[in-house]
Design brief:
Layout (H helix, E strand, L loop, with lengths): L1 E7 L4 E8 L2 E5 L6 H9 L3 E6 L11 H8 L2 E4 L10 E2 L5 E4 L2 E7 L8 E6 L5 E7 L22 H16 L7 E4 L17 E2 H7 L9 H9 L9 H10 L4 H8 L2 E2 L1 H10 L3 E4 L3 H6 L6 E2 L6 H8 L7 E4 L5 H10 L5 E5 L2 H7 L9 E2 L1 H11 L3 E3 L3 H6 E3 L3 E2 L18 E4 L4 H12 L5 E4 L2 H5 L6 E3 L8
Helix pairs in contact: 3-5, 7-11
């Protein structure tokens, strides 16, 4: 059976291409659909169906554009109510793609319309399951997203539905089925996903905490909700775009590819409420950047951080990009629904500097210099890594303010003395520094190389101590 996983690492997202005898199906496509069309063309195949496992929260699906360009039919599982024409399948309904069959298995819990697709090959053998966000490798989908759309769907109620779906619909299936999930490690749609992107169902029954055979529903709900963090703020907006529809990707690209001279760029920034988003490497941003611009580098976890920190998908954005990567940046923004790019700085930051425009810099020191200063500055060190990273090990006496909560803790940063900011490797600390500077807080110093470099010095560190070991 031909099943190709198309994995996009920056979003930890997996789409699927299935082809048989001149017909193809795409499951959970990304926003830009031309690669799927070209893939089908290479097999001389016509895309017949676009299957959606659910209304996605972490990205905007390409189903509408793909339908417009290929004539393929969109298929959702039971209870889905999109605002456009689509097939709303029944539980156990079978669709044919060439000599293959795709069976609908309604598996509510992550969301109410969540659906798993059972893949059956040309010989009638069950080959695998495309599970969406119902079942990941090492984890299951978070049950708190649909409540942002329907308030009567509490996370406890959804977790109970998910328990039933897993026990009654997924676990009775054959152990040798291949599990094809929608996400891998790094996605915010779960909390403990593996770096592996496929596995057998039998192995998952052995190692996935959520599939323990002796687990009660109450135990499942408690474990699933334990440690679950608030989802990124842009998630509900992406859900609504996937339900209601959106502007075509081609139109977004056309209107966003607007090169601006330094003077025109400055005028646009002053005349609109646009955020200036600088996506160059952090080392370039440190050396020089447009005042009050926000740094989120294209070569890091770009789109999820944009969604988590800018949040409003309708926010106007002006871009400072590495030369030649403008299309890539606009594309990656559109994947998470940020379609309101109004232009980019033509020639990148060099043209701004060459034109004699005002610019700012960021003070950054090495880990060795940080270690030399530590005895005098140990009370003004801020760690912006995730909770788990900080708990595992951190600089002694450092304060913890996770990057995704930074905007809620601005008052905690000192105004009357310099302070130091670090993350794990230097990417997130520069994001944090840029946000602080944009809010008028300039007395900060970045630690280059982050905790990875700090660990190589003699700075005292605090290791995590499990509460159960405390006397």
């Amino acid at each position: 059976m031909k099943v190709e996983q198309i994995y996009t690492g920056c979003l930890a997202h997996a789409a699927y291409y299935i082809e048989s005898n001149g017909e193809a199906a795409i499951i959970d496509p990304l926003r830009e659909v031309q690669p799927y069309i070209e893939r089908a063309n290479s097999d001389n195949a016509k895309i017949k169906y676009i299957f959606e496992t659910h209304f996605h929260a972490d990205f905007v699906s390409g189903h509408l554009d793909l339908k417009a360009k290929t004539g393929a039919q969109i298929v959702f599982g039971p209870t889905a109510k999109p605002s456009y024409d689509a097939i709303i399948a029944e539980d156990n309904q079978i669709f044919e793609v060439g000599d293959y069959k795709i069976k609908v298995i309604h598996t509510p819990g992550h969301t109410m319309e969540s659906t798993t697709y059972l893949l059956i090959d040309e010989e009638g053998k069950e080959h695998g399951i495309v599970t969406g966000d119902t079942l990941f490798i090492g984890d299951v989908g978070r049950p708190d997203l649909a409540q942002k759309i329907a308030t009567d769907l509490t996370q406890e109620k959804l977790a109970g539905y998910l328990y039933d779906s897993l026990r009654n619909k997924i676990m009775p299936l054959s152990d040798d089925l291949i599990v094809y999930p929608n996400h891998g490690a790094g996605s915010a749609c779960g909390k403990n996903m593996s770096k592996e992107t496929t596995d057998t169902l039998g192995h998952q029954k052995q190692v996935n905490y959520a599939l323990r055979a002796d687990m009660t529903k109450e135990e499942f709900i408690a474990e699933l909700l334990d440690g679950l963090k608030e989802p990124p703020g842009y998630f509900p907006q992406n859900v609504m775009m996937n339900i209601q529809g959106y502007e075509s990707f081609d139109k977004v690209m056309t209107k966003s590819k607007n090169p601006l001279s330094p003077n025109a760029f400055e005028a646009a920034a002053n005349e609109t409420e646009a955020i200036v988003l600088d996506v160059r490497h952090q080392s370039e941003f440190i050396k020089g950047h447009i005042p009050r611009s926000i740094f989120i580098g294209i070569d890091g976890g770009f789109a999820p951080w944009v969604g988590a920190l800018i949040v409003d998908v309708n926010q106007p954005i002006l871009l400072v990009t590495p030369e030649g990567r403008e299309d890539e940046v606009i594309t990656r923004l559109s994947r998470v629904g940020f379609d309101n790019v109004i232009g980019y700085l033509d020639g990148s930051f060099n043209t701004w500097k060459s034109a004699g425009m005002e610019y700012d810099t960021l003070t950054s020191i090495s880990a060795d210099e940080f270690a030399n200063r530590y005895s005098d500055i140990k009370d003004v060190v801020f760690d912006v890594r995730k909770d788990g990273e900080f708990l595992a090990e951190h600089v002694d006496r450092a304060k913890h303010t996770a990057l995704d909560t930074l905007n809620n803790h601005l008052s905690e940063f000192p105004e009357d003395q310099p302070f130091y900011v670090h993350c794990a490797g230097g990417y997130r600390s520069v994001i944090a520094a840029s946000i602080l500077k944009s809010r008028g807080i300039h007395n900060l110093i970045d630690v280059a190389g982050g905790y990875g470099a700090i660990k190589k010095t003699n700075i005292p560190r605090t290791d995590y101590v499990c509460p159960s070991t405390l006397k």
